[in-house]
Amino acid sequence: MPTFRYSGRDASGAQVSGDLEVASSELAASLLAGRGIIPLRIEAQPEAEAERAPWRLFGERGHLTLTELQIFSQQMHALLRAGLPILRSLGAIQESATRPPVAQLMGDIGASLDQGNELSAALRRHPDDFPSLYVAMVRVGEQTGRLDTVLKRLAEWLAFERDTRERVKAAVRYPTFVVIAMMAAMLVINLFVIPRFANVYQSMQVELPLITRVLIGFSGFMIAWWPLMLAAAAATVFGFRRWRVSEAGGLAWDRLMLRVPVIGRILHNAALGRFARSMSMALRSGVPVPQSIHLIAQAVGNAFMSRRLERVRTGIERGESLHRACAAAGVFNPLVLQMISVGEESGTLDEMLEHMADFYAHDVDYDLKRLSSAIEPILIVLLGGMVLVLALGVFLPIWDLGQAAMRRGA
User: Fold this and answer.
1) Per-residue pLDDT at 56 exceeds 50
2) Number of Cβ within a 10 Å radius of residue 161
3) Which pick of 2, 192, 336, 374 has the fewest CB atoms within 10 Å?
4) CA 4 to chain centre
5) CA 88, CA 145: separation in Å to the nearest integer?
6) Is the pLDDT of residue 197 over 90?
7) Distances from the Cα of 79 to the Cαs of 51, 133, 227, in angstroms?
């Protein structure tokens, strides 16, 4: 739904301004008149600005981390449930904030409310802290008078997101540490250990085995060209990140990651679980289905899956059922499609989606545990292979020299 930015004067003559998410400028003017505001200017905002906050790791650019946003939602729910006004609740959260950026953010939101804006409009001014799905949920809560209930559901949703990310981090922490340790060991061996042995072998003036010559040659190449290799590695990382954040690169990379064995299954199921839980929460809060899917498509964390979910929204807008639109998207398995169909027919779609989210949560948790056990043998083989190559390259010449000395002694 488009967003309109307005400025005008209230009944006392004071100047007010803010944002409204309505279907047309005429409806915005009518809504302002109902509030006793005389509009002086109403301008439509580009859609990219109104919904420019895709789901991403919180805290990358904004003030709030994912945990802090969850705590904010819980505190607002508790304070509103206790009967405190929104502005006073924000003031209490601002006073209890432990980080200055969070206190400043609460102050900015409070100042926006003082100007006559709704809470959802105030949150939309900080897209780096509040994703578009969060803002849409708050707006529905304001319209239905169930803002405290919506904030509770948002807190539960954010808790699920945080737990999922913590499990993923825990699963990849050990393999990442082992790979970094192996790379550091390779650098130390090639830059400091092998050159010492190369000097010893050169003084012996003997023919070295092939594997030893390869190791010495690679070590010499690294010593001679390490500035160029370092620059090439930095350029590669920079170029990959630039390509990764582009639209085409992000789509290609996310599609490729879904095809990686084991990891692709985890990413796919995690995206579907996030879709199901977010969709269930949005339906229970009263967000229209097409708008919910459009917002959730930005929250699944995978560009390829987002494109497919946008196809679902397009199908629903053409008059198709959710089950048929999801089947045409080609990313849902038959069990999920059957649960969606049963939910539509029985009128319990939100409950079915919640069950589906729980199913995927358990499935992702199982796969994450299996991921560590699947990666460990690969790491052991790689580590053993590296040790074997180094041992053969370093000790074969010593063995040959010992054998030759024994033959001469005999």
Assistant:
1) no
2) 20
3) 192
4) 29
5) 18
6) no
7) 28, 22, 58
Continuous segment of H or E residues that includes residue 110: helix 100-114
Query: Is the model's pLDDT at 238 over the cut of 90?
Result: yes
d(CA 167, CA 365): 7
Is the Cβ–Cβ distance between 351 and 343 less than 8 Å? yes
The DSSP bridge partners found for residue 3 are 21, 45
Stretch 207-225: mean pLDDT, rounded? 86
Beta strand pairing status for 15-21 and 38-45? unpaired
Mapping DSSP onto H, E and C, the string for 9-59 reads ECCCCCEEEEEEECCCHHHHHHHHHHCCCEEEEEEEECHHHHCCCCCCCCC
Whether residue 52 has pLDDT greater than 50: no
Under DSSP, the state recorded for 8 is E
Separation of alpha carbons 354 and 342, rounded Å = 13
DSSP state string for 203-258: HHT-PPPHHHHHHHHHHHHHHHHHHHHHHHHHHHHHHHHHHHHSHHHHHHHHHHHT
Amino acid at 325: A
Both tokens of residue 93? 């959260």
Q: Dig out the tokens for 118 from the structure.
A: 């709704």
Read off the tokens for 358.
């729980």
Long-range contacts of 249-254 (CB under 8 A, 24+ apart): 250/303, 251/303, 251/304, 251/307, 253/303, 254/302, 254/303, 254/304, 254/305
pLDDT digits over 387-407, tens only?
888 888 877 777 766 665 555
What distance in Å separates the CA atoms of residue 121 and residue 132, rounded to the nearest whole number?
Answer: 11
> Of 34, 29, 30, whose CA–CA distance to 7 is shortest?
29
Phi and psi at residue 360, in whole multiples of 5°?
-70, -35
Q: Tens of pLDDT along 323-355? A: 899 898 888 888 888 888 888 888 888 888 888
pLDDT of residue 46 exceeding 80: no
Average pLDDT in the chain: 80
**Bridge partners, 5 (sequence order):** 19, 43
Taking alpha carbons only, the member of 12, 148, 13 closest to residue 78 is 148
Compute the distance between CA of residue 3 and CA of residue 17 in angstroms, rounded to an integer: 13
* Closest C-alpha to 48, from 219, 333, 247, 249: 247
Beta bridge partners of 307: none
Judged by phi (left if over 0) then psi (alpha if -120 to 50, else beta), residue 46 lies in: beta
**Residue 278: count of CB within 10 angstroms of its CB:** 26
Eight-state DSSP code of residue 330: T
Global pTM reads 0.66
